[in-house]
């Protein structure tokens, strides 16, 4: 017997395309418009504020600009909250793997130009991103397939307060992805615009070199490993980090590390720095990335606004967990059907009122057999 899962009586849930500490991302379809969408779901926890609500608010602040997702709706349900947004293409992380775990200088510089523009816009809205990494940058589709989108604002934070002033410096817990986090993040210092740019620098070096000096470090715990990565960054000079690369990358790091906590970066200067290198190499900004020529034979298994998942040993355990969730949904639906049946069999006027109220209080999901 086949069945489908419907959310808010408008979206059909189809397949999982991403997961993590934030919850699960599914590919789905808007039943009314037939449009493909990405549906991000988090389980409700009355003891904690919903993360998706904060992310929805940030998407609303950023909408309308090139490279930022349009959110269709945010729904608070009985058991789950969900964010419905545009379904995009492959992440830079997955395209990097596909390209042989190295990007050419041309591709890296085209990526840098777009991401500097994206971070500048995010910062202009008083937001510091704090989670620069390959899987959080995703290509568009169709006539926007060469546009890079920024997704997942789970760690983003406002650095401008209600009085339009920069929030004061303070010590904070680590936030970010260890490989690309700034030195300040490792030192548990509040992050600002300069830290997003430093993280972007690490990302660009990673794309060119295929690794960073602290890749492959092993430790007994995630915390110890993060500490080892931070120590490695402190010991690695800018020139060592950029050894063999064009000098513009050294200049980039020297500039962003010279910025004070509340300084506004000169984004135009950084973009001009890389554009000058691009032009000196005789490259043409034609939108042809390393993966473009292989596009016809590239069919990723899972396409997500968050990431393209490379199948791993964890996939089986995730699937078992998803099956449990589906089974739970079916049981809840059967219970609701039984309750509705009890209401219909009763002539008691009070029960009729409860039934009417029950119909108004629709669940977040509906499973149709």
Summed up, the helix count is: 11
Instruction: List the strand order in the largest sheet.
Output: 5-6-4-3-2-1-11
**Percentage of β-strand residues:** 15-25%
CATH C-level of the largest domain: Mainly Alpha
Would you identify the CATH H-level superfamily of the largest domain?
Answer: Transferase(Phosphotransferase) domain 1
Description:
This protein is of the alpha+beta class and 369 residues long. The protein contains 11 helices and 11 strands. A hairpin with a 3-residue loop joins strand 1 (4-7) and strand 2 (11-20).
Set down the secondary structure blueprint.
Elements: E1 4-7, E2 11-20, E3 23-30, E4 36-43, H1 51-62, E5 71-76, E6 80-86, H2 92-98, H3 105-124, E7 127-128, E8 137-139, E9 148-150, E10 157-158, H4 183-186, H5 193-209, H6 222-235, H7 238-241, H8 247-258, H9 267-280, H10 314-345, H11 349-360, E11 365-368
Antiparallel strand pairs: 1-2, 1-11, 2-3, 3-4, 4-6, 5-6, 7-10, 8-9
Helix pairs in contact: 3-5, 3-9, 5-8
Brief overview:
By secondary structure, the protein is of the alpha+beta class.
Notable characteristics:
single chain; 369 residues; Phosphorylase Kinase, domain 1; Transferase(Phosphotransferase), domain 1; 2 domains; seven-stranded antiparallel beta sheet; 15% strand; globular; disordered C terminus
